[in-house]
Each structure stands twice: as C-alpha cells, then as structure tokens.
Amino acid sequence: MSLKNKTAIITGAGKGIGRAIAISLAKEGVHVGLVARTAADLESLGQFITEQYGVKAITAIADISVQSEAEAAFAAINQKLGAIDILINNAGIAQFGNLLEMEPEQWKRIVDVNLMGTYHMLRTVLPGMIERSKGDVINISSTAGERGFATGSAYNASKFAVMGLTEAVLQEVRKHNIRITALTPSTVNTDLAVNAGLKIGEEDRMMQPEDVAELALAALKLPPRVFVKTAGIWTTNPQ
Ligand SMILES: NC(=O)c1ccc[n+]([C@@H]2O[C@H](COP(=O)([O-])OP(=O)(O)OC[C@H]3O[C@@H](n4cnc5c(N)ncnc54)[C@H](OP(=O)(O)O)[C@@H]3O)[C@@H](O)[C@H]2O)c1
Description:
239 residues, alpha/beta, Rossmann fold, globular
C-alpha cells in the first residue's frame, strides 16, 4: 500500500529511532510533523527531509509528558499538514538502577515520558482518526515491555504499561478502522542505549535505528484489513 501524501506525527524525531522512522516515511512521500524538545535537532532534520525528499516537514518543540505541550504540538502540525494519518509514539527515556537506589522523581520521570507522553499523544490525535474512520498508530515499546530485569523497574513498568495501553486502546478503536501496533525492539544503537551503558563496544553488531524503521514501514504498508499487533525485533537470540 502506498503511503505517498499521507501525514504523520513522529515524537522523539530528533535522534535515534524516531529520526530514522521520520526519514523512511519522508522517503515514501509522507509529510511529517517532527516533535521533540531540542529545536536544533528538529530544524536540521526538517531541512534535510524537505531538501532530500520534497515533502513537508513541520517541527514542534514539546515535552510530551506535559499534556498542554503535546496538544500544542499537535495543533501546530495539524494546522500546517491537515488531518493526521499516522502517529508514531516513539519519544522515550531510559535510566536504570535498583528500585531503592533510584530517586522517586527520577523513577516517576521515566513513567511520565514513556507512558503519560504516549497517552497524551493518543488522547490528542485519536479523535481526528476516529472522525475520519482511519489511522495508524505505532507505539515503540521494547523487549523491556515484555520481560523485567534487575535495575529496570521504572523502564520496565513504563514499557509494560505501553503494552497494556496498546492492547486496551486497540480494542476501542479497531471498529473505527484504526490500527495500533506495538513494536518491541531489543537493544538498538542509539544515544539512549549508549548513554545507558548497554552493549558498549558492540555498536557495530547492534541493531541500527534504520532496522526498526523498516519494520515500522512494513507494518504501515500492510493492507488496511490486516495489522501487526505486536512485533519483536532482535539483534541477539530472544531469551
Ligand atoms: N535504543 C534502544 O536500545 C531501544 C530499545 C527498545 C526500545 N527503545 C525505545 O525507542 C524509543 C526511541 O529511543 P532511542 O533509542 O531512539 O532514543 P534517543 O536516541 O535518546 O532519542 C529519543 C528521542 O526522544 C526525544 N524525547 C525524549 N524525551 C522527550 C520528551 N519528554 N518529549 C519529547 N521528546 C522527547 C529526544 O529528544 P529531546 O531530548 O530533544 O526531547 C530524542 O529525539 C524510546 O521509546 C525507547 O524507549 C529503544
């Protein structure tokens, strides 16, 4: 199915997986709305996308953990791109530490961005999709949304929650011809992984953001009557 001239909002588009998904959508002729907190990242990506692929690229600075900022970002993009066909809920943060060692504020921040940010974007974008009886949402969860590990309590809780949120909302909106897919990648070579100290020195053998983008694209290109509910993607053997 062609994605040409569709519109998409990608959160966390400034770097890593979100950036790769934004580029792969633009390559397909999708007009993109790019959301993150760092203006410089979004501006350089927006310029690259319009020059390279000739589609519209609108940037909106927002901390998606704040509902009013998520709403303002949507409004700004909606005004310039029109109705939104695709929402990529990708923005996320990771910090690891034992439950008793992490500060409560640090723990809560992870849930606020990864879960509440996804919720805020869904709450903002879904009404238009329901009204038009079509839409695609991809929630970037993680293998950490399927299996817990020591030091992962905040990240695991946030990503398990994204899986539950995906499953529940899917039941509500499928009748409106809206698809929601949760992708669960294992470690991907991005700043998030490297800053968290994951697989340092193994970056070349790790999955790359473009690999996740290919899976997202494949899910979006399926005929509207079918959808991927959950899809894992691993560099190493799944444990
Ligand atoms: N890398 C991995 O190994 C891996 C594996 C599985 C799943 N994931 C998930 O994949 C997603 C993307 O991760 P990544 O590895 O690509 O991370 P990344 O390279 O650190 O990029 C994250 C992006 O999200 C943005 N962001 C962070 N907090 C935000 C907020 N409050 N509001 C708006 N934007 C925000 C960041 O920009 P600003 O800081 O400028 O806002 C950045 O553009 C996350 O949900 C992550 O949990 C990652």
